[in-house]
Amino acid sequence: MGDKPGTVKTLSSTINSLFQKTLSEDEVEMVVKDLCGKGVIAIINKTKVTYLQK
Q: Is residue 11 within 8 Å of residue 49, measured between CB atoms?
């Protein structure tokens, strides 16, 4: 996938596209929260996405 989305809005849009726009807004938000919970990403100032390395 080239560059990683840098904002929550762009990440949410990307997730929605990957699921062929079949997810509700709540489901997309749950995916983003799950990525945070698993330590894949961190959200800074409620808008910026930081990708964490393991």
A: yes
Contacts of 46 (CB under 8 A, 6+ apart): 8
pTM reported for the whole predicted model: 0.88
Average pLDDT value for the chain: 94
- Provide the domain limits for residue 47: 8-51
> What CA dihedral angle connects 4, 17, 12 and 25, to 10 degrees?
-170
The candidate with the shortest Cα–Cα distance to 29, out of 12, 7, 14, is 12
Tell whether 31 is covered by a domain.
Answer: yes
